[in-house]
């Protein structure tokens, strides 16, 4: 007797086909500006992927301790946070394209010096310049994507932004882990010295330089110039909003947890678990690979559950894997915990970015984005220094434990604060 597919099977198949077709249609709807921006993001992330694996290890091999490394990393984050509001004002006055170009040039210049000098002062100063570059980018990117997309494909654009960033970082992580070994083999370099790491960092500069090209061809969508008095008026009115105050609080807590632990994963792998740079690069790139697949499901999850629920669920689900990471001395198990934590936790990034921009008015977007990142990165900087001090005194697991506590508190508050806000926003969107 011939067997026919069950009704449920056909329903699942039809739903899947429909979801894939809808996904493709929304990707095809990206504007020219959005596509050029995504190319820029991919190229920048290649360089950052190498930096992520190598730079901390390079600083330690120059003879500096974890406390100075923490000081440098904290300067990057604090300057990113404190410059966020001036960056938003500059973005509104100079335009999105010019702001991204300036960010890229500052990144190229700061990395060139950071990878060359051994002076404490210059390492600290150009960490600040790197932070300014990061501030210009993170304040501009969400605003640029909102202005160069429609509500139809916007969530997919934000997801593709994080997806391409993830792919680029993954390739950069893999390259960063392997380049030192390649230079050691071919150039007869001291394997425990800093030179192989330095050459690997130099190689990453090529991607930053090439990333200027797609930015040059972006067209400014409209004149974004605003009066300085209007910018300050928008800032003060935004700060009076209870919703914005809640966003600032939650992102400050997330930033505090982020700074305590995330900059030191490679240090923990290196010192506590005894992993080589090649192993660290493979583990980091594997985490990006898994993250790449999880990000594909973000738009589907948000359509079914809503943005706030998705954020809460994935952030809480990542915590057991972070605890697994620090509870074992076996590299393979720690790597599994790291990979799963990174993949699950980072699913919330495109949802947070999109939701934050949707619940505020158009004239507030750059300002709100700057306030959120100011709160986040300022606390990232302070807690990064605290995490470095803890590790310099031998407390290698304590920063990660504190991160778990902070993420739980931030997630619960986020759900309480914004579940009803999202429901109201949906009603408004349906009425338009």
Automatic annotation (TrEMBL):
Limits of the Major facilitator superfamily (MFS) profile domain: 33-422
Keywords: Membrane, Transmembrane, Transmembrane helix
Domain of life: Archaea
GO molecular function, one term: transmembrane transporter activity
Leader sequence segment: none
Alphabetized InterPro entries for the sequence: MFS, MFS_dom, MFS_trans_sf
Membrane-crossing residue ranges in chain numbering: 34-59, 71-91, 98-115, 121-139, 160-179, 199-218, 225-242, 248-269, 281-301, 313-339, 371-392, 398-418
Pfam families in the record: MFS_1
PANTHER family: TRANSPORTER, PUTATIVE (AFU_ORTHOLOGUE AFUA_3G04000)-RELATED
Name this polypeptide is given: MFS transporter
Source species of the chain: Methanosarcina flavescens
């Amino acid at each position: 007797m011939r067997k026919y597919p069950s009704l449920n099977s056909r329903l699942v198949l039809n739903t899947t086909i429909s979801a894939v077709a809808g996904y493709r249609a929304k990707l095809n709807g990206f504007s020219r500006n959005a596509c050029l921006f995504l190319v820029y993001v991919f190229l920048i992330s290649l360089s950052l992927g190498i930096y992520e694996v190598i730079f901390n290890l390079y600083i330690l091999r120059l003879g500096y301790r974890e406390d100075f490394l923490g000081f440098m990393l904290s300067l990057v984050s604090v300057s990113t946070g404190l410059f966020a509001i001036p960056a938003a004002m500059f973005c509104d006055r100079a335009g999105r394209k010019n702001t991204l170009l300036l960010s890229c040039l500052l990144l190229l210049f700061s990395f060139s010096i950071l990878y060359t000098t051994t002076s404490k002062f210059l390492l600290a100063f150009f960490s600040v310049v790197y932070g300014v570059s990061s501030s210009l980018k993170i304040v501009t990117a969400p605003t640029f994507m909102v202005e160069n997309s429609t509500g139809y494909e916007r969530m997919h654009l934000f997801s593709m932004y994080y997806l391409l960033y993830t792919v680029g970082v993954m390739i950069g992580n893999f390259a960063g882990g392997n380049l030192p070994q390649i230079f050691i083999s071919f150039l007869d370099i001291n394997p425990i010295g800093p030179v192989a790491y330095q050459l690997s960092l130099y190689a990453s500069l090529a991607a930053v330089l090439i990333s200027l090209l797609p930015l040059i061809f972006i067209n400014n969508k409209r004149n974004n110039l605003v009066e300085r008095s209007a910018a300050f008026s928008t800032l003060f009115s935004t700060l009076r909003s209870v919703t914005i105050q809640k966003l600032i609080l939650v992102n400050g807590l997330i930033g505090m947890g982020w700074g305590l632990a995330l900059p030191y994963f490679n240090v923990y792998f290196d010192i506590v678990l005894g992993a080589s740079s090649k192993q660290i690069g493979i583990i980091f790139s594997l985490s990006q690979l898994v993250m790449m697949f999880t990000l594909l499901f973000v738009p589907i999850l948000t359509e079914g559950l809503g943005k706030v629920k998705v954020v809460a669920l994935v952030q809480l689900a990542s915590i057991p894997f972070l605890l697994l990471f620090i509870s074992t001395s076996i590299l393979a198990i720690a790597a599994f915990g790291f990979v799963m934590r990174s993949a699950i936790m980072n699913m919330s990034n495109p949802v947070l970015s999109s939701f934050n921009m949707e619940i505020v008015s158009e004239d507030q977007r750059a300002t709100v984005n700057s306030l959120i990142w100011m709160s986040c990165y300022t606390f990232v900087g302070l807690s990064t220094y605290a995490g470095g001090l803890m590790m310099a005194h031998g407390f290698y697991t304590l920063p990660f434990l504190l991160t778990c506590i902070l993420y739980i508190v931030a997630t619960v508050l986020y759900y309480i604060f914004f579940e009803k806000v999202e429901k109201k926003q949906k009603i408004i969107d349906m009425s338009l």
